[in-house]
Amino acid sequence: MENFLEQIEKNKITIIRTWISFPIVLDLIKNNSIDENLFIRRYAFALIEHFILVVKKDEKTEKNSAVIDFLKYLRKQNIKINELFLLFSTFKNSLIEFAFKSKLETAKLIEEIDFYFEKIFSVLLDIYSKSIAQIENALNKSVDIVDKYVIMSRTDINGVIISVSNAFCKISGYESYEMIGKTQEFFKHPDMKAEFFNEIKKTIQSGNMWQGEIKNLKKNGGFYWLKTTIHPNFDNDGNIISYDAINEDISFQKELKNQQDLLVEQSKSAALGEMISMIAHQWRQPLQAVSILIQKLPLLKELKGEISDEMLNDVVSQVSNQLDYMSKTIDDFRDYFIPNKKKEEVYIENVIN
Questions:
Q1: Cα–Cα distance between 33 and 21 in angstroms, integer?
Q2: If you write DSSP's letter for every residue of 296-327 in order, what string do you get?
């Protein structure tokens, strides 16, 4: 074995070329988009070095960072367990083939190669399996989180619901079995017009994504608002096979906006009432003056028997002045409430005077 290891160290590139020339390895590289240059220059040499160290010094696999990186790279390329076995088996075969070509083969050497291969591969397989299990566990947790907190649904090409998340069930009040097999009409709120859903259908059937707000009915007769994104799913030939809807509950925002709009309207009404009250206050004095002037005429006639033209003109003039004042009061308040009016600089002294 010692002589064999010396030959391996001198002929690493030969062994690597033999390894990657196996049809199985070539197919794995091609089908899994493995970077051949990276595979050869970094990982293949690292694996040979690791084999030599394990044989010479009984190195432990999990301490070799380069080999661990190799496993991470293979996992990233979605190499399956059986493909990993084939990949390392061909590595062993390349070592055996090199032993034959170098005329170093003996039954004992082949037996030792098998022994060390099993020792190395069993540890690497255990590490790789645990990594996959961790990934699957993480994915399962992610799926559970999405199912619990994300309001999602999937429909077929005809708009029939084929799956819903638990979050969707919670907000709608329906169980999943009550929704599966139904269409959007099942949740349709009377406020949502048919033309609205026809536009959605037209958009997504053309292969485009649709975004907007939808008001749905709850099972208990209430309603909820969703900010919705619907996108089509395609097969390998580009045909639409289903639609996914991802939703955000915006019921609170809608209610808040309604309350704000109501407050604005109430504020407008209050402001209008206040303005009318101020106008009425400003009108009381001129109205009283007009009333007195009008009462003055019959009183004078009763006392003097007639009303002179001079007196009549004087009363008419005073009444006209009071009416002008009242009209100006309306204009002043109207100008005060005009939106986007121009600002002007004024002297406080003039205003007071």
A1: 17
A2: HHHHHHHHHSS--HHHHHHHHHHHHHHHHHHH
